[in-house]
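call fold target=Methyltransferase small domain protein
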Amino acid sequence: MDAVLLTGFAKVGKGERALDLGTGTGIIPILLEAKTEGQDFEALEIQPESAEMARRSVMLNNLQDRIKIVDGDIKEASKIFGAASFNVVTTNPPYMTENHGVKNPDEPKAIARHEIKCNLEDVIRESAKLLKPKGRFYMVHRPRRLAEIISLMKEYRIEPKRLRMIHPFADRDANMLLIEGVRGGKSMMVVEPPLIVYDEPGVYTKEIHRIYGF
């Protein structure tokens, strides 16, 4: 769900070049190609098996001319693609610090969930390098790390501009967040109305239906 909600929040305009960091099986660029006017997507993935699955997904959707999957490390992203190369960077990074919580015994899942191969600062630092001036950064993450997220974004001159909290139910605490920043932007942030996932157990809200295209 995290990746799908990010694609309902991110914006890619016609003629803009977009990069997804840590793309996994490629769902974010595939959905953004369908939902936005963007036609030029690249996606970086460190795990070879996931990158190959992403390539197959791109081929099955006949999007080889619009989406390119690249094998590589997020920490080296600006060297791989070049500085100031993208109008948009999206990411659904690992949420947990390396020593937080129980790691999944399945290594690919552990890498996707824990900061084993890269951490939050790596993601934001490289995104700042990759973005053109006034380029946009979109991320889905966890509320408990919001202070750290905003601090790092400001440190690397990605100004937080939009924030939306995601709640499983209207009376529950937020368990995810969506944030947009602008490279070198002016200081002003809009906190959008919360996104509620379920009306009741097993029943999605109308907005979730809209985002998923049900």
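return ok
The CA atoms of residues 54 and 60 lie 10 Å apart. The domain at 2-212 is CATH 3.40.50.150 (Rossmann fold).
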